[in-house]
């Protein structure tokens, strides 16, 4: 059985004993800043190792409780697997406790334990009152059925029982996914003398190895993981669920900020517009209007933006999930399913929170149609999500599909085995029905062309794809045409593409006159008149002559000497054979005239045509036969 890694969080009101409880559980004082010591409150996130054996490794985050430090609190709980909600026995539920409860619910934290602290300070009867108070506040929250643990951090009462309960709870919990691409939202950046820049955070997903090339997003800075540490101990690899410190080369402390994300893959999307599903707090104090300024906390990032509704213009109280959009002022790194909190910047208030439906939000019209489309995005199965992504983009690589659908590679590969999907070009996926639709469009275009231009051999590829490249990627169009050749739906001759069953031909109503024209040219032998004269004699209208002449040339029925004189192909080939038989490896114009019995009027154009065809090569006054 592989080792499992978890991070738990301590949350609750200021002065309810979170930091003291963390120290009692771990023997680590997480208040490390001078200011924290002086003021006896947590300002930054504190971390400590809680437990480790062959199967489990558990870390603790002590998040600040004071409302002024809500950003750090959100950054801390965004990456945790279980929350210990700390409530002091001598005070009970406080306003900050309620706000923390809301935030934990919005962030999708499902596992929780209620730790009633400072139990040695109050009588046992009072503890029962505190329990009742807490139960009333927890109704309808993720902690509704959470167990209660009575502890006192100074006397160590209940500490071992709490620790054992945390361990047993996590043993039953799903572990974070270490298979996918690595992602670590950065919550601390600092410099270690002699080592350089170090970032710290909770590994959301994937794994990172010492020496691995990474990127700091959204800036796109390329860095290398020079060294890794997990709880101040060197490590060769850090796994999803672990707290990790990573010493980075190729970047300075000033280049990186909290809120940025360290990733190993480009499958994560950089965006400013996200389609979301949100819920709002029950006791929202102020009206939220269309395009109200908001502060979005996602991962460890805090970004200003506006909320955009599509089915209302204001919001006060709403118990149902709302489908809407966040338009942010700065880029973030996110994917489908990521959780976030939105707060009013002034006056400060938690509005609500939710999850990302689509990190690639577009501009939509106000109305029910947009809500219906967002609903489809929200509930879509993997097949529906992949189908929708391919229908929109037409063709995507595995990495691009993962970005757009927020599906891991294993789920994607399983989904793409469905018969409705097609892998081509050794790297891209598309929909079979799109390939069929493109093939049908090309077929229609070629058949229309053949019907209107029966004497032409077909269309070149650029003409076929004209107008289609705005709708489909060139790689997909090329594949459809090549696939059509393999299936013998289409065929090609030189640069032209045609339906495989099509044979260029003279229209029926001009067949007889064309036969007469060719007969007359052939009867005149090598001493022909201008080609235009033959067309006039055959009664072929001027508007048709250009098309018919091209057809006769392309089908090698007549051969031009120049732009005026044309020989019948049979006679041209006889003349070439006669000239070759009656001359040596090289010859002059006089010898050629004698061999073919032609005047200079026809002989010079004839020899120049042989040069142009590569049959002969002129060297001063002589011509040399090419092999």
TrEMBL record:
Chain ranges of the Tr-type G domain: 3-174
Chief location: cytoplasm
SUPFAM superfamilies to which the protein is assigned, alphabetical: EF-Tu/eEF-1alpha/eIF2-gamma C-terminal domain (SSF50465), P-loop containing nucleoside triphosphate hydrolases (SSF52540), Translation proteins (SSF50447), Winged helix' DNA-binding domain (SSF46785)
Location in or out of the cell: Cytoplasm
Gene3D superfamilies: 1.10.10.2770, P-loop containing nucleotide triphosphate hydrolases, Translation factors, Winged helix-like DNA-binding domain superfamily/Winged helix DNA-binding domain
A Pfam family recorded for this sequence: Beta-barrel_SelB
Top-level division of the source organism's lineage: Bacteria
Keywords, comma-separated and alphabetical: Cytoplasm, Elongation factor, GTP-binding, Nucleotide-binding, Protein biosynthesis
InterPro entries, A to Z: Beta-barrel_SelB, EF-Tu_GTPase, EFTu-like_2, Elong_fac_SelB-wing-hlx_typ-2, P-loop_NTPase, SelB_WHD4, Small_GTP-bd, T_Tr_GTP-bd_dom
Assigned GO CC terms: cytoplasm
Gene Ontology biological-process entries: selenocysteine incorporation
Keyword Protein biosynthesis: yes
An example molecular function term from Gene Ontology annotations: RNA binding
Known role: Translation factor necessary for the incorporation of selenocysteine into proteins. It probably replaces EF-Tu for the insertion of selenocysteine directed by the UGA codon. SelB binds GTP and GDP.
Protein name from the UniProt record: Selenocysteine-specific elongation factor
């Amino acid at each position: 059985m592989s080792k499992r890694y978890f991070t738990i969080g301590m949350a609750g009101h200021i002065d309810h004993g979170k930091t003291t409880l963390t120290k009692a559980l771990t023997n680590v004082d997480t208040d490390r800043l001078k200011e924290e010591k002086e003021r006896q409150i947590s300002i930054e996130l504190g971390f400590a190792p809680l437990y480790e054996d062959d199967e489990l490794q558990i870390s603790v985050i002590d998040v600040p409780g004071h409302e002024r430090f809500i950003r750090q609190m959100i950054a801390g709980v965004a990456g945790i697997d279980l929350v210990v909600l700390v409530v002091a026995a001598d005070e009970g539920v406080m306003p900050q406790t309620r706000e923390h409860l809301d935030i934990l619910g919005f962030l999708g934290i499902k596992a929780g334990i209620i730790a009633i602290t400072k139990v040695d300070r109050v009588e046992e009867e009072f503890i029962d009152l505190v329990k009742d108070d807490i139960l009333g506040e927890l109704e309808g929250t993720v902690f509704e059925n959470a167990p209660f643990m009575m502890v006192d951090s100074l006397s160590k009462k209940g500490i071992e029982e709490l620790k054992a309960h945390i361990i047993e709870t996590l043993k039953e919990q799903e572990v974070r996914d270490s298979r996918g691409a690595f992602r670590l939202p950065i919550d601390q950046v600092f410099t270690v003398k002699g080592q350089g820049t170090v970032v710290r955070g909770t590994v959301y997903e994937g794994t990172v190895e010492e020496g691995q090339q990474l990127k700091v997003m959204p800036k796109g800075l390329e860095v290398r993981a020079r060294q890794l540490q997990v709880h101040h101990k060197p490590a060769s690899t850090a796994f999803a669920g672990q707290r990790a410190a990573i010493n980075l080369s190729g970047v300075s402390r000033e280049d990186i900020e909290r809120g940025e994300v360290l990733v190993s893959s480009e499958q994560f999307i950089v965006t400013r517009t996200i389609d979301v599903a949100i819920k709002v707090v029950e006791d929202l104090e102020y009206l939220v209007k269309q395009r109200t300024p908001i502060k979005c906390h996602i991962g460890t990032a805090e970004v200003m933006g506006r909320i955009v509704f599509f089915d209302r213009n204001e919001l006060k109280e709403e118990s149902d999930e709302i489908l809407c959009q966040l338009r942010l002022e700065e880029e973030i790194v996110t994917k489908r399913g990521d959780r976030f909190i939105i707060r009013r910047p002034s006056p400060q208030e938690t509005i609500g929170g939710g999850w990302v439906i689509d990190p690639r939000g577009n501009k939509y019209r106000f109305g029910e149609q947009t809500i219906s489309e967002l609903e489809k995005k929200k509930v879509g199965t993997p097949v529906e999500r992949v189908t929708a992504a391919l229908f929109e983009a037409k063709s995507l690589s595995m990495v691009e599909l993962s970005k757009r659908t927020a599906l891991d590679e294993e789920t994607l590969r399983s989904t793409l085995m469905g018969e409705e999907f097609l892998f081509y070009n050794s790297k891209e996926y598309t929909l079979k029905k799109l390939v069929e639709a493109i093939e049908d469009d090309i077929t229609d275009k070629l058949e229309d062309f053949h019907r209107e231009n029966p004497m032409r051999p077909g269309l070149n590829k650029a003409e076929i794809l004209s107008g289609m490249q705005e709708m489909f990627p060139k790689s997909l169009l090329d594949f459809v045409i090549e696939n059509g050749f393999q299936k013998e739906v289409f065929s090609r001759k030189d640069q032209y593409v045609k339906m495989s069953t099509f044979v260029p031909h003279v229209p029926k109503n001009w067949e007889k006159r064309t036969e007469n024209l060719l007969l007359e040219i052939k009867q005149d032998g090598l001493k022909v008149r201008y080609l235009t004269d033959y067309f006039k004699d055959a009664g072929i209208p001027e508007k048709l002559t250009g098309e018919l002449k091209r057809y006769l040339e392309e089908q090698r029925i007549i051969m031009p000497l120049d732009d005026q004189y044309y020989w019948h192909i049979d006679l041209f080939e006889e003349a070439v054979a006669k000239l070759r038989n009656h001359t040596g490896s090289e010859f002059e114009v006089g010898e050629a005239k004698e061999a073919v019995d032609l005047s200079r009027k026809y002989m010079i154009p004839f020899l120049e045509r042989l040069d142009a065809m590569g049959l002969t090569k002129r060297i001063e006054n002589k011509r040399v036969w090419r092999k």
